[in-house]
Amino acid sequence: MADGIINVYKEKGYTSHDVVAKMRGILKQKKIGHTGTLDPMAEGVLPVCLGNGTKLCDLLADRTKTYRAVLLLGLETDTQDTTGVTLAEYPVAVTEEEVKAAVLSFLGDYDQVPPMYSALKVDGKKLYELARAGREVERKARPVKILDISVEEIALPRVTMTVSCTKGTYIRTLCYDIGRKLGCGGCMESLLRTRVGQFELKDSLTLSEIEKRRDDGGLADHILAVDAVFLEYPALTMKEEFDKLVHNGNPFYRNQAEGDSPAQDSPVRVYDSQGRFIGIYALDREKNVLKPQKVFLGGNK
């Protein structure tokens, strides 16, 4: 069974769940998970976790993401993208300067109302299920953050933007909100995710490329080891006589491991004496021991 993370290029028309199902068939293993959904019309980077790496799914879903989006002004739809039913059309009588100013005004903290066509739940029901049943419910605005936003090209009524943002940001809704601010409406015409944390577009592989590398024996070179996600943390290696502590998920004293002393409050990567990655540990100040925070038990064997 493969353990780690593979950078998949999700193509248009596939859901994130479709990608996972196809990866299970390609790799002949069940323990596979994705790290946050991409709409079927969107494409680009989708880190997929394998084996023990599936414990990283939630963590990677929290990482900063970067997108290239095309905003189509003058059109509003029920899905906030061009796959939806048209709700309204407006003339686009704005200048390039007005477009740039409206786009850049969303930089920073931003309260965003999630779209009805989303997987968020209200009273136990997914919003898109309610939307398909013809119901619209009130949604509370959620705080998100646009870390960086720039206009790459303006060819009205289209505006190409690059956006870096925090978890939970809907680029469809950002396009809708920019259109509203300009007074002419807008929706998302296309979306390409170019980065999730350390995973970049240039390193991603399509499903057919993954299948080819499986057949030619080169796929292992494209599977990132679990511990590579945590390289910013200092590393400790257990002394052999204390391996049993970490193999059983127990805390240990600092002098039972070798390596640089971590900075105060810094998590650490812990390896057994054979160099196998155990997990992420943090200092318990009261007991003066390092306690497990996330255990992978040799996830990079």
Automatic annotation (TrEMBL):
InterPro entries for the chain: PsdUridine_synth_cat_dom_sf, PsdUridine_synth_N, tRNA_psdUridine_synth_TruB, TruB_C
Residue span(s) of domain Pseudouridine synthase II N-terminal: 24-171
Ranges of residues in domain tRNA pseudouridylate synthase B C-terminal: 172-228
One GO-annotated biological process of the protein: tRNA pseudouridine synthesis
Keywords, ordered alphabetically: Isomerase, tRNA processing
Reactions catalysed: uridine(55) in tRNA = pseudouridine(55) in tRNA
Enzyme Commission number, as recorded: 5.4.99.25
Homology family: Belongs to the pseudouridine synthase TruB family. Type 1 subfamily.
HAMAP family per UniProt: TruB_bact
Function, as annotated: Responsible for synthesis of pseudouridine from uracil-55 in the psi GC loop of transfer RNAs.
Record protein name field: tRNA pseudouridine synthase B
Species in which this protein is naturally found: Hungatella effluvii
